[in-house]
Amino acid sequence: MNAQGTRHGARSWAFYDWANSAFATVVLAGFFPLMFQDFWSQGVSASIANLRLGWANAAASLLIIFIAPLAGSIADRLGAHKRLLLGFTALGVLATISLSAVGPGNWQLAAVLFVLASLGFLAGNIFYDALLVHVAPRAEWDALSGLGFGLGYLGGGLLYLGCVVAVLNPAWLGLASAADAVLLSFVVTGVWWAVFSLPLAVNVTEPVRQTAGESALAGGVKQLRETLKHIRQYREVWVFLLAYWLYIDALGTTIRMAVAYGRSLGFAQESLIVALLITQFVGFPAAIAMGWLGARIGARNGILLGIGVYLIICIWGAFIQAPWEFYAIAALVGLVQGGVQSLSRSYYAKLIPAHRAGEFFGFYNLLGKFAALIGPPLFGLFGVWFGDVRYSMLALILMFVAGAIVLMRVESQGATT
Length: 417
Prior knowledge:
membrane, MFS_dom, 0% strand, 417 residues, ATG22/LtaA_families, Growth Hormone, Chain: A, MFS_trans_sf, disordered C terminus, transmembrane, 16 helices, mainly alpha
């Protein structure tokens, strides 16, 4: 019996989301931005630190753009999704743990390790998603994918909460400072990621294929060319994808840069940590509610509503003064973040030809994973150009507005029902 017939393999696949979401929550959105600004970028302005962080995020995304087509082709041809997933997981785990050994002021090494860890996380997810078709029958994909998402949300949130308690009370662990607790959290996150990847490594299998005909590189280039050609034949699709690139990049930038932004305004680490927890716990029920709303007012209208809320967030964020305002903004982000992402997926599904759903969604997912190429560095540059980190919000406003304008040019009526 292959992996499609094993419940144990399917559950083990879903459990990997529990494993790698720890990196997304604890490192990517939580502690790394704080440490990068306060610990590794000592002696420079907040604007310069944010710019460096923005370029690091963009570098990871740029590496994925170059790696993904070739790696995806090799995985398809050799049945190597699991092997490549575990390889990139090992890269992410080792880089994450290594962050704990970077000394104060060494922002260059911290940035390099962060890029490598992010590469392991982002690339690993490509192969993780692809394994879904091998671990369960088609009729179970939706439920199994939802199980993975739920486990990831729960696992990442619980580990982050535990790390927060340690950072706020470092003496409980015999540590001298909160910084020491954060450095320890990188080790714990790497170990968590590695240990909870073991069920997938042991229980998930995929058919082994043999390479034939053209090389993997030629096949990857051909596949990308074919996808682009088909997308150009559907105006509504490529117009939407342009809009999606703009607003999802801005949304992703709020996730990656919010903590660094708040720190640059002088808010205490404790306030920023609490804000991120608020976003985590508000986000899950809010995403469900926005899905319900989108079914009634139309997915595109729901996305535009979410973008409108993000514009309020950005404008308010430019003038924020008190910690309670940061908490309120965190709650607003939680209200719309998951909803915009989920409605974008359902809206896109209504635009594409059903017989090419896999091909078109492959391109859509790549865009989602590349959505840190423009926003984070632009966020940092605006703060440097205008001499005040608050002007960084202008970059997000421009991207959200541009995305909304392009989105309104999608004319398909089917997408609004």
